[in-house]
Design a protein that fits this description.
The protein is α/β, with parallel strands linked by helices. The chain has two domains: 105 residues, Rossmann fold; 176 residues, Rossmann fold. The chain contains eleven helices and eleven strands. The protein has a seven-stranded parallel beta sheet with strand order 7-6-5-8-9-10-11, with helices on both faces. Strands 1-2-3-4 form a four-stranded parallel beta sheet. β2, α2 and β3 form a beta-alpha-beta unit. α4 packs across α6 and α7 runs parallel beside α8. The longest helix has 21 residues. The radius of gyration is 21 Å and the shape is elongated. It starts with 10 loop residues before the first strand and ends in an 8-residue tail after the last helix. The structure holds 2-keto-D-gluconic acid.
């Protein structure tokens, strides 16, 4: 497909956007995919989905770009420093997905402690009808949940788990004005926790923050839950810790190289594996889409973003 040359293309689509978002962008801005764009001149806004990488090479391909609207709260896929250097502003989709992601984080904590999906596999395998039994599991009430990264989503997840009767501890870049117990490092938080829940941003600042030392501090009775970014956990160290029984199990919605999931994890019954679905509800994805459009409109009309990053 080539672009209509009578119409100046101002908005372009990059990466894996959901079909309804593509439709909205096509209807409202006649925004083509980057691959279908005949001439990049005049493109001012790039909408980025599916965590597509945007670095110097991608920015070179769009010489008139002035804004990047990222479909997602996490923007570790975008080289913001390079964009800023070129005078390009970046927006994300905060707040609208907080509840959905916090729900999934809390659900994974309950799942790893109560063995819900493992018990589902047990029933489907016919083991229950053969008279076998599932092992007893662990109470959520009274367990210590360590939240690594007490931002908007971390706080919302902690509130949910507190309602379940869990005791909340946390580590964050800064101490917050909350009653929950603060630990000065991830290792100290892990040592105090039954379940460590990763809710930090991705990117260079948190790369492999959860390493072998943190997993060892979590210990053989401890579980890891990650709904943030795969990059925050040293995946090889996680596989090794599970294989050696140095941690009890894990609930993972994100991976280092999505959609690739290490073979060693696929084989294990003590891990819950989800395909990066933290924000994947109809309501939330639509709200994210509306926020992306609001950012594009504000930028094209007034040169401002509604939810700029940084
Ligand atoms: C999206 C996410 O699935 O918001 C984020 O940071 O990870 C998810 O909501 C992702 O951005 C895909 O576009």
């Amino acid at each position: 497909m080539t672009t209509d040359t009578t119409h100046q293309v101002r908005v372009v689509q990059l990466g894996g956007l959901m079909p309804f978002v593509r439709e909205w962008l096509t209807e409202r801005y006649a925004a083509p995919r980057l691959a279908d764009l005949a001439d990049p001149a005049g493109v001012e806004v790039a909408v980025v989905g599916g965590g597509a990488k945007v670095g110097a090479a991608e920015l070179d391909a769009l010489p008139d770009l002035r804004a990047i609207a990222n479909f997602g709260v996490g923007y570790d896929n975008v080289d913001v420093a390079e964009a800023t250097r070129r005078g390009i502003v970046v927006s994300n989709t905060p707040d609208v997905l907080t509840d959905a992601v916090a729900d999934l984080a809390a659900a994974l904590v309950v799942d790893v402690l109560r063995g819900i999906t493992a018990a589902d596999r047990f029933v489907r395998s016919g083991a229950w009808s053969r008279g076998e039994r599932v092992p007893l599991t662990r109470d959520v009430r009274g367990s210590v949940v360590g939240v690594l990264g007490l931002g908007r989503i971390g706080t919302a997840a902690a509130e949910r788990l507190e309602a379940f009767g869990a005791e909340i501890h946390y580590h964050s870049r800064s101490r917050k004005a909350v009653a929950w117990a603060y630990h000065p490092s991830p290792v100290e938080l892990a040592a105090a926790s039954d379940v460590l829940v990763v809710l930090t941003p991705g990117g260079a600042g948190t790369d492999k923050l959860v390493d072998a030392a943190v997993l060892d501090a979590l210990g053989p009775e401890g579980y890891l839950v990650n709904v943030a970014r795969g990059s925050v956990v040293d995946e090889d160290a996680l596989v090794a810790a599970l294989e050696d029984g140095r941690i009890a199990g894990a609930g993972l919605d994100v991976f280092a190289d999505e959609p690739h999931v290490p073979e060693a994890l696929l084989r294990r019954d003590d891990v819950v594996l989800l395909p990066h679905v933290g924000s994947a509800t109809t309501e939330t994805r639509e709200a994210m889409g509306r926020l992306v459009l609001a950012n594009i409109d504000a930028f094209l009309e007034r040169g401002e973003l509604v939810t700029p990053v940084g």
